[in-house]
Amino acid sequence: MGIEPSFRALGVDERAFLDALPQQALNAYDDQCAPANPRMPMLADMETLMRAAYRGTGRGGAATGEDPTAAV
After folding, report:
1. What's the pTM?
2. For residue 21, what are the contacts with CB-CB under 8 A and spacing of at least 6?
3. What is the pLDDT of residue 12?
4. Cβ within 8 Å of residue 11, ≥6 positions away
5. pLDDT in the model for residue 34
6. What is the pLDDT at residue 59?
7. DSSP string for residues in 55-72
8. pLDDT at 71
9. Angstrom distance (rounded) from CA 30 to CA 14
């Protein structure tokens, strides 16, 4: 389909991504749709998901065996 698998593959600068990550996680947490989820994600959950999206891995790195808590 021609869709890049990650923000990294799209050329998003890693330092800029990491610098913005705390605020972006907070924005996602504060989004009006978040309470509609079956399980309310915590900020750490949001950051883990966003790190996985940067790397292009599933569940924070599980698909490639990466440590989901490791720095991007």
Report:
1. 0.71
2. 47, 50, 51
3. 97
4. none
5. 83
6. 58
7. HT-SGGGTTTT--TTS--
8. 55
9. 24
